[in-house]
Design goal:
By secondary structure, this protein is an alpha/beta fold. Helix content is 41%, strand content 14%. Strands 3, 5, 6, 7, 8, 9, 10, 11 and 12 form a 9-stranded mixed sheet that branches. Strands 13-14-17-16 form a 4-stranded antiparallel sheet, with helices on one face. The structure holds pyridoxal-5'-phosphate.
């Protein structure tokens, strides 16, 4: 027989699960619940405590209770690597990524491989309008080079947004780039000489490994937890051992892990790198793709010394084709501006002006609410199907934002063989080894894959997951 508070807790769970309250939405307060449900305030408090314990809601200081992104208890997550870091080394095997990228625009392929949003998630009509408007009213600006720093109207919007998330920024400390990849590239180029060592998360986004490769640098892979992000303990060990010149991190909903560092860990990371005099390049490209209404903070917001160089773009929320990103750093601005200038003078003015108007009008925030909901739905449905159809030993992440699921498959499954087999069925997936500096056949993460959930859930996607499950089951025999 359930006590009164347990009955109330059950009732509230049913309301959350039925969608009456969505993730990130505020729950009624204790007094309102006690009045509405005709129970004493202490019973309401006990029920809310139970919901918090079960992960359904989270309390926010001086604000109340909010519906949480719930972690499933029946699913095991991939393990973090041993804390012992390896030796730094040149990046190998990244050419394999070209094959993955070559499939991006093939409409016959179900795109679980690349981190490219399905076009139905993008604000194509608003983009079309903003671009047409920018052409009509800025004939002079778009007929010439944009400033190397970028269009001031966009930089002002970016500075405002950054300040709203705790990074007080002046628009003259921002450089607009051609995507986040370029922002990271010029930051790294400005900080290093060929042969230098750069610390990266492990696993990490292959694009950063390619930048390290292109600049003739060495990568030092630091074990990274699927929920908590880069291991600070391992990073400290690495700083004690090697002359590291920069550290690239993706603290919010990383690619491929989906990990999101807590505020405490972000603050500790900022402090650790400042003490070791190692600049941080913070890639926050997925920060806006949070499944809860509260966007996570940034490492930059815990940095008072200027040691953090902040990079991001609109590729994951508006369109990768816009090729607009930015880098912000007061301390390194002059050096970054020079690197941007010698690379390609400036970012395209037309896209910048269109984006500035999309931000100014409030359209971007409205669109964010839409895309967050769509991707979260897709992550939930794809995870559910994977749990049903993949081998029992499969371990899977449960991200609270971003695009990706990171899967550890049975040990004898070879990710590269799987990619080939899946392609024969018109399905693309990303093999685990490309997220390591040594993407050779017997590399790290050889039995891991990354699944992008920025795809539309429909019969075709469901069938593709089922087919993938059959292929993996056959490979696991
Ligand atoms: C973590 C991360 N950083 C940077 C990029 C590249 O961004 P952009 O297309 O804006 O250059 C990507 C794209 O997949 C990414 O996942």
């Amino acid at each position: 027989m359930k006590t009164l508070y347990q009955q109330l807790a059950r009732e509230l769970v049913q309301e959350i699960e039925s969608g009456a309250y969505c993730i990130g939405e505020k729950m009624p307060g204790i007094r309102a619940t006690s009045n509405n449900k005709r129970v004493s305030p202490s019973t309401a408090v006990a029920a809310y405590r139970q919901l918090e314990l079960d992960g359904y809601i989270e309390s926010r200081p001086r604000s109340g209770f909010y519906v949480a992104h719930r972690r499933r208890r029946d699913v095991e997550e991939p393990q973090i690597e041993n804390l012992v870091t390896e030796k730094p080394g040149l990046v190998e095997g990244q050419r394999r990524v070209l094959q993955l990228i070559s499939q991006i625009n093939n409409p016959n392929i179900t795109q679980f491989g690349a981190g490219v949003p399905d076009s139905s998630f993008l604000p194509l009509r608003a983009m079309e309008k903003a671009l047409a408007h920018a052409v009509k009213f800025n004939r002079i600006e778009i007929s010439s080079y944009s400033k190397t720093l970028g269009e001031i109207s966009l930089r002002k919007q970016l500075a405002r947004r950054m300040s709203q998330i705790g990074c007080l920024t002046h628009h003259d400390d921002i450089i607009v780039t051609s995507g986040c990849q370029e922002a990271v590239h010029i930051s790294l180029k400005m900080l290093t000489q060929p042969g230098d060592i750069v610390a990266v998360e492990s696993p990490t986004f292959h694009g950063h490994l390619q930048t390290i490769d292109a600049l003739g640098l060495k990568a030092l892979e630091i074990p990274t937890h699927p929920r908590e992000g880069i291991s600070l303990e391992a990073l400290q060990l690495a700083f004690d051992q090697w002359p590291i010149k920069a550290c690239i991190v993706i603290p919010n909903f990383s690619n491929p892990l989906g990990s999101c560092m807590s505020d405490a860990n972000k603050a500790a990371l900022a402090k650790l790198c400042h003490k070791a005099k190692v600049p941080i390049i913070e890639d926050d490209i997925y920060g806006d793709v949070s499944f809860s209404q509260q966007r996570p903070s940034t490492v930059k917001s815990f940095d008072s010394s200027g040691n953090v160089i902040y990079c991001s773009s609109f590729s994951k929320t508006i369109s990768p084709g816009m090729r607009v990103g930015w880098v912000s750093s007061a301390k390194y601005l002059d050096k970054l501006e020079y690197q941007k200038f010698v690379t390609n003078v400036s970012a395209p003015g037309l896209q910048q002006l269109a984006l500035a108007s999309m931000l100014r009008s409030g359209m971007y925030d409205k669109h964010l609410r839409f895309i967050r909901g769509e991707i979260e739905k897709s992550v939930d449905l794809i995870s559910e199907r994977i749990i049903k159809t993949f081998p029992l030993e499969t371990k899977i992440t449960q991200p609270s934002g971003g695009y990706f699921l990171w899967l550890e498959l049975p040990e004898n499954v070879d990710a590269f063989a799987l990619v080939e087999a899946a392609l024969k069925h018109n399905i693309s997936i990303a093999p685990g080894p490309i997220f390591s500096a040594k993407a050779s056949a017997k590399a790290k993460f050889s039995n891991y894959i990354r699944i992008s959930c920025a795809v539309l859930w429909n019969d075709k996607t469901r069938k593709a997951i089922d087919t993938l499950g059959e292929i993996i089951n056959a490979h696991a025999q």
